[in-house]
Please model this.
Amino acid sequence: MSNPALAEIDTAVIDDLVDANHILYQQGVVDGFGHVSARHPANPNHFLIARSMAPALVTADDIMEIDLDSRPVAPNAPPSYLERFIHGEIYRSRPDVMAVAHRRGRARVRNSRHRGDEQRHAGKDAAAR
Model:
């Protein structure tokens, strides 16, 4: 692991978080948009999460430390998921929670609308009726 900010953390914790990303992806729990975090083992006011990327691709070097205000601890940290705020608030309000996984439901993504997509989605919806 090349992130010196995480050097004091047991590498097994980082490895478990990387494995969790891969397993949740392989089992279809998350897709390219889901993510998982873990409470920092030595500082309960921080959590660990990968930088913004697909869970199947996460490595130990992608793990970053975030505070409960959802700010990266390291200066010049790479971008993280916008949903890290959900993780931060869960950890803040539930000291007993040690890990959080977030996913977008397939139906929600499938039924999302974007400008210019109405025709394509309307056709699929009409065909299903």
Strands lie at 35-39, 46-50, 63-67, 99-102.
